[in-house]
Structure formats: structure tokens, C-alpha cells
């Protein structure tokens, strides 16, 4: 029965493909495209896909891309070994039946090379670019020659591979691949490695004949064998199809992901990824480099004594920042070596000698005494010597200690070895060195004092100059750039495009003339009273913070009585735009990710930045979403920094009705738990994709926090998300429990944001919460 259903689905798919081919726009022989003219691409019938030129660095590449969304998304690239061409080329479907790239100087470049002569071509609505012979039969199609992406209806056949791109701005062949192996196993490897398990970092462990990787139009990604038996469902599918395009792509970082694109909004969301550990892809940081996780972001670092080969391209790896002496050299060495250790760091084990040693110090000595030893791994009393390059490095929980041999230039007394050095000479040399060292230290102190006085005087002059011009004092540690009002008038086209409006002013879209960076400019209007305080507060708070889940402040304007703030522009608007507009609702897994992003941002403010900060106005409108729908907390105008020796403060009520913690109204001291309460309300809104207070619902459902607790007690949590939602009920209950703990009326019952993050991750238990009005708990 299952085989019959699969055959039926396959037949329907073929019929749909045939219908799509019937509605294509025919491209005849002699047609051509140029990168800069009006005809730079051939579009599909619906206009969703296009084949042709697209910008790549300082030149142009040929490929297929999503043209029906605001930002072009490339899904196929021609000539990936050297994909970039100048503007004076032409793409031609020549009269002799070839698809070629013609250069004004040089030989033609073949884009597709079918076995038969081409008669016509089409860009289909499926995203497949096809070439036909004179009998209207397909002789070549991009679906059978994928680069880094699969579209619905497309297969990755046995023996075929997808290759990542070099970077987001370079679609040349990158350093990772995913292969549909002959044995039926779908495996990910670094490039230029054998197809063996030691190099794999992801595998489905499936076995079969004629196995293919398939993607359906509802986001169903699965492996099927030649008997039409599904071997593995990578995703369950069943995602909405209206106005959405699904694609599976091996990304620059080596992770294979399933994306959902909204063709109306241009929004992108991740539905599935092959590995959760972003440091798992082997070779991400290149030779000698190692990967470490920072705020759920993979970062590459170099071991001691090494620098990046190319700081802008981590995959180039690291190289020594000193010149090592050759082991074959008989000359006197000027390099002195020492061992630097890196705990919990592993590379691929290419041991050339192994010794049993009782201590790490013994292993260090063994490596220092061996000219061929450039690094060593010490673990459980075993010392394993290594040669460079070190490969596939990453930080882990493994107890392995990496010992890296680092060279420094030796002093003259160390590098020149007299034939019979008297002890008295050694003593003199040591005294001389001591005298020189003390003299240099004293000289350094004198220079530091003089420089300090000079800098202080300059700061005083600058302060006086600012106050004379009518400007307020600016915080001393603010790093963002200062703009003039005239510069921001030009950038915003005289404040023409308003993005939103708040209590203290409006936000406008702009483009910085020099860099072309799109920005959001916040123009404060109540400058004389609250607006001035908000301006200073926002600069003071956000100028000293840096976190992937906090908005980035690019600059400010302090021009007379004009106060403006310049932020990085967030193309997906606010979290409110996503949650409260039905067509933008995030899928369940995306909601969990957004909730985690917001929690991590608040945790940073509470515990990880230099000064503990209470945001005081956490709400969806103050959480912005970037191109990848990563949440960024914004609007720090009401934030309250705490002194190092204080954990609470008394202050007037701050925040937005519906999100304000009860203690604000009780004249009680306010702590970071006020933000926890606001987060709890936002978490409920994220789960349910609706506002906390909404009169459009029946009376018993109009206040979300009350209804959520009632549903929890009655065991009817499914009502909160709707029957049509595809939701993990175990995770739903966990999320609701966390939210109910956060909105307890008694602040001491609320968890810290650190515990909230742990509970979201599943590493901390979530007890049954009491009613939010309760003052007692066993938590």
C-alpha cells in the first residue's frame, strides 16, 4: 500500500512538472543576455525564478536565483571553479545550438554541454532551467546538475554531491560537501578527503540500493531507495505551501539546512539543520585553527604563536608568527622555545610518537627536547607528539590538553654560547640585565604620567568646547560614530521614510552615503525633558554592550538641541510584526529559537556585561529581527544600569502596560526579576502568536496569561496554538511552564534569566508552576 501511495505521489509530481513545462516561456536560438543591460536574465512564467547574470563581488556570475523576493537568493551557479566575469561578456543561446558565454577577448566558455544540439531553452516555475532538442525533449537540466541547493521536485542522485560556497559573497566551490553515497548513506565531509568515516561529521547511516535524497513541495526532506521505500525522514513535511518556497542547502559553514522562504515578504527561516554543533564541520577554521562556540556562534581562533593567514577568511587557517629553525640546520639558533597549553582543545590525531608520562610537565619537556615535535596532546598520562599542520581543531569538553611549541627570539647572551663561560661573567650579565630592566620600568612610568596628564587636559578642553556649543556631556566610553544633523538629513532623504513612532520620537530609514549601509535613525523629539534623558541613557547603556542578541548602535548625533541615534537596519521589522500578523507567523521550531535568542540577550544584560542592566521595557515591539530572523533587543531609553554593589533600585514606573511587573505599582524595590516578568509575557505571546491582551477573543481568553494558566491546569494546552499547528507537545508544555514561572507576582519566585536559559535548553528541570497569584512554591 505504501509503495502504491509513493507511486501515486510520484505520478502527481511528474504531472505537475509536465504542467509547469507547458506554461514556460520559450527561449529561442539567438537569444542573449548581458550583465548590465535591460535583458540580464530569463524569468520563469510566474516571475519567481530567473536564469541569468547576478552581481558577485566586482563582477557578475551566471546562475539561477529567486527573483520573486526582495533579496536575490542564488540556488545554482555556473562555472564554479571561476564563476565571476566582467561586465563586457554576453550569455548566448547560439544559432549552432550551444549555451555559451562570449567574451570580447578570449575563448567562449561553455555553460552547459549536452550530448545533443540545443534547439530552445526554458526557465521553469519549478526553478529548473532546461535545454531542449528539436523534438522538444530535455537534453540538459539544472536539476540534474545541482551546485549547493535542492528545490522541491529535485533529487540528489546516487553518487552525486552538493558543494558549499566559499562565502556568502563568493559562490565558488567551498570547503564542504554532502554526498549521496553508493551504499545509501548520506554523508557530509570536508572537500578533498576520502569517503571514509574518520572524515565524516554528519551521516544518516542508511543502507540501500539506488538511494536518492528528495525534497517535496511541503518541505518533506527524505531518503528513498529504488523500491520507493522511505529509508529516513529528515523532516516530516506538512508545512504550508501558500506563498512559500522550500530549499535544502549546504551553507558556507558546512551545515546542511532546510529553509522556508516567503515569496511575499522575502523572509527566511530555518526549519531543520543536519548538526546543532556549529563547530562540527571539520576544517571550518582551516589548518592549525580551532573552533569555539561563543553565544551559540562558531568562532575561529589561532593557537598561541600563530596568526590568521587571512583575517577575513577563517578557512585559510593560521600560520606561525615566528620563524622556526630547521632540524637539519647546524647553525647557532636565535630562537628560544616554550610550551603554551590549550585545555579542552582537540585536533585530528596525527601522532608520530607516543610516550607514557606521569605529568603534563613531563610531556612538555619531551616536546621541547624533540626538534621534530611542533605540538603534543596530553591526556590520561599519555603524551602524543604532533607535526604541523594541525587539522580539524575545536574546543570540546574532552580533557585533552594541547601543548603548542612557541618560538621567541633569544637574547644575545642566550644565543651566543661561549666555549668555556666563567661563572663571574654570568653574574655580571644578570646584574646588567637587572639594572637595564629597572631603568626601562622607571622610564615607562614617567612617560605614562606625562601622557596621562596630556590626555586629561585634552579631554577637559574637549568637554569645555562641547558645553560652550550647547551640547550635553557625552559618555566617555561610547564607541559609536558621531554624525552631524546635516549628514543624517541626507542619509534619510530629509526624514522621508518613517519606520515607526514611539513615546519619544520617530524612527526613519536611511542609507549612509559613504558606505551604502542601510540604517535606522531614531529622532528624539522631546529633547528638553524625557528625550534628553532617554538619549543619554541609550548611549550609556548600549555603547558599552556587545552581544549578537542586542541591537548594534552605529552612531549618534549631538548637534545643538538635536538628538538622534543611528542603528543597524533590521529588514524583518520587529517581533510584533512577525507574531501579530498571521501571514508572518513563525513555525514552531523558529518560535523556540526566537524565545532562546531573547532570553540570551536579557541574560547578557543581567549577568554578563560590565554593568548589570535592567532593560525595563521588554516587549515584542522592542525586539527587532534581522535578515535571518535572529532576535535583537532594542530601545534602551528606559534601561536602568545598576552600580556594582547594588542589585535593586527604587525608581518611577517604567515600561509598557501589560508587560510591567507588579512590583512597579507596589512601590517595591525593582530588580532584574522585573525583566523576567516581562519576558514571561513575551514568551506566552511567542508561543501563541497573539497579544497578551486582546479584546477580539472571548472574555475567558482575552487575557493570555490567565487563559494560559487555565489551559495548563485543565490539560488543554493544544488550545493555545490551534488544532492546525504542527507542535511538539512536550516542548509546548515545557515552554508554558517556564512562562508561568516567569510571571509569578512574587519576584522571588521567578527564576533568574540564567535558569530560564537552562530550562529552555532542557538542561534544567521545570517543576509544575503555581498560579501566578500564589506566594508559595517548592521551587
How is this structure best summarized?
With 779 residues, the protein is an alpha+beta fold. The chain contains 13 helices and 45 strands. The two termini are 52 Å apart.
Describe the model.
- By secondary structure, the protein is α+β, with helices and mostly antiparallel strands.
- 23% of the residues lie in helices and 28% in strands.
- It folds into five domains: 2-256, Bulb-type lectin domain (Agglutinin, subunit A), CATH 2.90.10.10; 290-415, Hepatocyte Growth Factor, CATH 3.50.4; 421-468; 481-568, Phosphorylase Kinase, domain 1 (2-Layer Sandwich); 575-761, Orthogonal Bundle (Transferase(Phosphotransferase), domain 1), CATH 1.10.510.10.
- The strands form twelve sheets. A six-stranded mixed beta sheet has the order 36-40-41-39-38-37. The protein has a five-stranded antiparallel beta sheet with strand order 29-35-32-33-31, covered by helices on one side. A four-stranded antiparallel beta sheet has the order 1-10-11-12, with no helix packed on it.
- It starts with a helix and ends in an 18-residue tail after the last helix.
Amino acid at each position: 500500500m505504501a509503495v502504491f501511495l509513493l507511486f501515486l505521489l510520484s505520478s502527481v509530481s511528474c504531472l505537475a512538472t509536465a504542467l509547469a513545462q507547458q506554461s514556460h516561456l520559450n527561449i529561442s536560438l539567438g537569444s542573449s543576455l548581458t550583465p548590465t543591460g535591460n535583458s540580464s536574465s530569463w524569468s520563469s512564467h510566474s516571475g519567481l525564478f530567473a536564469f541569468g547574470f547576478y552581481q558577485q563581488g566586482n563582477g557578475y556570475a551566471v546562475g539561477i536565483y529567486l527573483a520573486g523576493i526582495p533579496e536575490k537568493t542564488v540556488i545554482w551557479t555556473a562555472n564554479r571553479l571561476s564563476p565571476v566575469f566582467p561586465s563586457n561578456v554576453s550569455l548566448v543561446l547560439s544559432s549552432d545550438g550551444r549555451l555559451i558565454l562570449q567574451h570580447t577577448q578570449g575563448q567562449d566558455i561553455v555553460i552547459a554541454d549536452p550530448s545533443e544540439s540545443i534547439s530552445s531553452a526554458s526557465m521553469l516555475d519549478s526553478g529548473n532551467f532546461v535545454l531542449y532538442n528539436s523534438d522538444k525533449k530535455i537534453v540538459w537540466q539544472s536539476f540534474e546538475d545541482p551546485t549547493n541547493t535542492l528545490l522541491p521536485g529535485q533529487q540528489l542522485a546516487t553518487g552525486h554531491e552538493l558543494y558549499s560556497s566559499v562565502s556568502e559573497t563568493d559562490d565558488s566551490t567551498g570547503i564542504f560537501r554532502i554526498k549521496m553515497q553508493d551504499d545509501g548513506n548520506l554523508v557530509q565531509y570536508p572537500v578533498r578527503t576520502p569517503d571514509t568515516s574518520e572524515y565524516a561529521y554528519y551521516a544518516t547511516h542508511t543502507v540501500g540500493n539506488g538511494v536518492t535524497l528528495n525534497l517535496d513541495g511541503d518541505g518533506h526532506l527524505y531518503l528513498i531507495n529504488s523500491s520507493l521505500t522511505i529509508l529516513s525522514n529528515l523532516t516530516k513535511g506538512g508545512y504550508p505551501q501558500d506563498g512559500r518556497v522550500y530549499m535544502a542547502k549546504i551553507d558556507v559553514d558546512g551545515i546542511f539546512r532546510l529553509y522556508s522562504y516567503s515569496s511575499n515578504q522575502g523572509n527566511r527561516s530555518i526549519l531543520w539543520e543536519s548538526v546543532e554543533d556549529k563547530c562540527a564541520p571539520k576544517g571550518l577554521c582551516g589548518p592549525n585553527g580551532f573552533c569555539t562556540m561563543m553565544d551559540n556562534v562558531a568562532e575561529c581562533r589561532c593557537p598561541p604563536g600563530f596568526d590568521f593567514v587571512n583575517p577575513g577568511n577563517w578557512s585559510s587557517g593560521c600560520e606561525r608568527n615566528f620563524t622556526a629553525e630547521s632540524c637539519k640546520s647546524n647553525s647557532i639558533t636565535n630562537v628560544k622555545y616554550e610550551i603554551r597549553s590549550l585545555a579542552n582543545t582537540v585536533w585530528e590525531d596525527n601522532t608520530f610518537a607516543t610516550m607514557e608520562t606521569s605529568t603534563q610537565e613531563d610531556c612538555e619537556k619531551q616536546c621541547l627536547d624533540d626538534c621534530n615535535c611542533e605540538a603534543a596532546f596530553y591526556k590520561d598520562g599519555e603524551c602524543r607528539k604532533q607535526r604541523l599542520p594541525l587539522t580539524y581543531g575545536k574546543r570540546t569538553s574532552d580533557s585533552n590538553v594541547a601543548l603548542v611549541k612557541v618560538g621567541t627570539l633569544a637574547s644575545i647572551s642566550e644565543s651566543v654560547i661561549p666555549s668555556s663561560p666563567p661563572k663571574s661573567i654570568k653574574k655580571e650579565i644578570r646584574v646588567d640585565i637587572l639594572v637595564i630592566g629597572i631603568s626601562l620600568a622607571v622610564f615607562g612610568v614617567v612617560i605614562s604620567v606625562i601622557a596621562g596628564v596630556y590626555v586629561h587636559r585634552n579631554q577637559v578642553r574637549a568637554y569645555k568646547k562641547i558645553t560652550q556649543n550647547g551640547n550635553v556631556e557625552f559618555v566617555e566610553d561610547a564607541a559609536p560614530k558621531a554624525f552631524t544633523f546635516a549628514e543624517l538629513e541626507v542619509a534619510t532623504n530629509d526624514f522621508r521614510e518613517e519606520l515607526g513612532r514611539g513615546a519619544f520620537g520617530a524612527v526613519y530609514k536611511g542609507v549612509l552615503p559613504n558606505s551604502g549601509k542601510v540604517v535606522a535613525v531614531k529622532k528624539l523629539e522631546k529633547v528638553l525633558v524625557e528625550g534628553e534623558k532617554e538619549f543619554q541613557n541609550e548611549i550609556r547603556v548600549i555603547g558599552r554592550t556587545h552581544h549578537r542578541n542586542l541591537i548594534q548602535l552605529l552612531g549618534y548625533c549631538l548637534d545643538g538641541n538635536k538628538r538622534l541615534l543611528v542603528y543597524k537596519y533590521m529588514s524583518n521589522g520587529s517581533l510584533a510584526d512577525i507574531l501579530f500578523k498571521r501571514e508572518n507567523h513563525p513555525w514552531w521550531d523558529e518560535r523556540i529559537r526566537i524565545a532562546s535568542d531573547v532570553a540570551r540577550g536579557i541574560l547578557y544584560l543581567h549577568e554578563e556585561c560590565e554593568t548589570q542592566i535592567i532593560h525595563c521595557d521588554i516587549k515584542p515591539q522592542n525586539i527587532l529581527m534581522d535578515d535571518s530572523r535572529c532576535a535583537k533587543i532594542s530601545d534602551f531609553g528606559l534601561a536602568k544600569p545598576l552600580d556594582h554593589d547594588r542589585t535593586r533600585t527604587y525608581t518611577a514606573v517604567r515600561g509598557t502596560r501589560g508587560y510591567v511587573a507588579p512590583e512597579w505599582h507596589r512601590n517595591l524595590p525593582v530588580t532584574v526579576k522585573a525583566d523576567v516578568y516581562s519576558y514571561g509575557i513575551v514568551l506566552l505571546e511567542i508561543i501563541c502568536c497573539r497579544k497578551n491582551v486582546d479584546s477580539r477573543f472571548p472574555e475567558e481568553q482575552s487575557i493570555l496569561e490567565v487563559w494560559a494558566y487555565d489551559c495548563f491546569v485543565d490539560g488543554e494546552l493544544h488550545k493555545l496554538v490551534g488544532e492546525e499547528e504542527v507542535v511538539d507537545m512536550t516542548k509546548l508544555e515545557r515552554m508554558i511552564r517556564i512562562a508561568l514561572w516567569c510571571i509569578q507576582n512574587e519576584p522571588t519566585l521567578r527564576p533568574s534569566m540564567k535558569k530560564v536559559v537552562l530550562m529552555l535548553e532542557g538542561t534544567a528541570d521545570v517543576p509544575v508552576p503555581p498560579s501566578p497569584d500564589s506566594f508559595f512554591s517548592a521551587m
